[in-house]
Amino acid sequence: MIELKSVEEIGRMAVTGQFVGELLAELSGVAAVGVNLMDLEHHARRRIKERGAESCYWDYAPSFGRGPFRNVLCLSVNDAVLHGLPHDYVLRDGDLLSIDMAVGIDGWAADSALSVVVGTPDPADLRLIEATEVALEAAITAARPGGRLGDVSAAIGEVARSYGYGVNAEFGGHGIGRTMHEAPHVANNGRAHRGMKLDPGLTIAIEPWFCRSTDRIKFDADGWTIRSADGSRSAHSEHTVAITASGPRVLTSRPTHGATSADTTRKPATAS
């Protein structure tokens, strides 16, 4: 069942989305060469607790995982693209890091993700990240009232192909609101003018993710971390978006402080 949210309810989701966007921006600034993934995880745990929010990941136990996730971030490095399990790993120069998080505040959830390079960037990695961001923007633009869900999916697939990347259809976006995962499924490829009608009040998480040289994936032994099947690098971008009468509204916008979407490189940590 798909629940259309009222203007007031979308406003409450936007409160959660603002926190998610701010924390993601904060975490992307903390991520640097020499930083342990668990430092990022504990930083996020502390900030979520301070805000009185609840992680949507902590008790997340889908069929493919091994027990509840028991972390508040998905941290995926290099060839890992989704559901990266935080662990004792120190970021190295040139690592490509994807950070994904979803929280609930006062019963309303928001979900977002970004990818950054720490230290010295490989231009191919920056291009890969750019492709996910361009695809996300195209999909948001397509998420207009009166359109079709296939318009959103087709926009993502078209950008992927224009950059020369394949699209994996096993994992994509989803509805969101009172819980992290609601109907409908939002595929990362599809046919325009097909699928359910986009009515005001629909709230969805749109999340294009691409691998550099394959559209196939594999799972780590932990049952969570999803990697490119050929070991090529991967990137992931995501926003929670509401369909409104006046057009799409991004609920998880991040403060940029003068940066642009292309500012995806994080410098090495310096000694204090």
Automatic annotation (TrEMBL):
<keyword id="KW-0645">Protease</keyword>
<dbReference type="InterPro" id="IPR001714">
    <property type="entry name" value="Pept_M24_MAP"/>
</dbReference>
<feature type="binding site">
    <location>
        <position position="181"/>
    </location>
    <ligand>
        <name>substrate</name>
    </ligand>
</feature>
<dbReference type="Pfam" id="PF00557">
    <property type="entry name" value="Peptidase_M24"/>
</dbReference>
<dbReference type="GO" id="GO:0004239">
    <property type="term" value="F:initiator methionyl aminopeptidase activity"/>
</dbReference>
<feature type="binding site">
    <location>
        <position position="83"/>
    </location>
    <ligand>
        <name>substrate</name>
    </ligand>
</feature>
<feature type="binding site">
    <location>
        <position position="238"/>
    </location>
    <ligand>
        <name>a divalent metal cation 1</name>
    </ligand>
</feature>
<comment type="subunit">
    <text>Monomer.</text>
</comment>
<feature type="binding site">
    <location>
        <position position="174"/>
    </location>
    <ligand>
        <name>a divalent metal cation 2</name>
    </ligand>
</feature>
<comment type="function">
    <text>Removes the N-terminal methionine from nascent proteins. The N-terminal methionine is often cleaved when the second residue in the primary sequence is small and uncharged (Met-Ala-, Cys, Gly, Pro, Ser, Thr, or Val). Requires deformylation of the N(alpha)-formylated initiator methionine before it can be hydrolyzed.</text>
</comment>
<feature type="binding site">
    <location>
        <position position="111"/>
    </location>
    <ligand>
        <name>a divalent metal cation 1</name>
    </ligand>
</feature>
<feature type="domain" description="Peptidase M24">
    <location>
        <begin position="16"/>
        <end position="245"/>
    </location>
</feature>
<keyword id="KW-0031">Aminopeptidase</keyword>
<feature type="binding site">
    <location>
        <position position="100"/>
    </location>
    <ligand>
        <name>a divalent metal cation 1</name>
    </ligand>
</feature>
<keyword id="KW-0479">Metal-binding</keyword>
<feature type="binding site">
    <location>
        <position position="111"/>
    </location>
    <ligand>
        <name>a divalent metal cation 2</name>
    </ligand>
</feature>
<protein>
    <recommendedName>
        <fullName>Methionine aminopeptidase</fullName>
        <ecNumber>3.4.11.18</ecNumber>
    </recommendedName>
</protein>
<feature type="binding site">
    <location>
        <position position="238"/>
    </location>
    <ligand>
        <name>a divalent metal cation 2</name>
    </ligand>
</feature>
<dbReference type="InterPro" id="IPR036005">
    <property type="entry name" value="Creatinase/aminopeptidase-like"/>
</dbReference>
<feature type="binding site">
    <location>
        <position position="207"/>
    </location>
    <ligand>
        <name>a divalent metal cation 2</name>
    </ligand>
</feature>
<comment type="similarity">
    <text>Belongs to the peptidase M24A family. Methionine aminopeptidase type 1 subfamily.</text>
</comment>
<dbReference type="InterPro" id="IPR000994">
    <property type="entry name" value="Pept_M24"/>
</dbReference>
<feature type="region of interest" description="Disordered">
    <location>
        <begin position="235"/>
        <end position="272"/>
    </location>
</feature>
<feature type="compositionally biased region" description="Polar residues">
    <location>
        <begin position="253"/>
        <end position="263"/>
    </location>
</feature>
<dbReference type="InterPro" id="IPR002467">
    <property type="entry name" value="Pept_M24A_MAP1"/>
</dbReference>
<keyword id="KW-0378">Hydrolase</keyword>
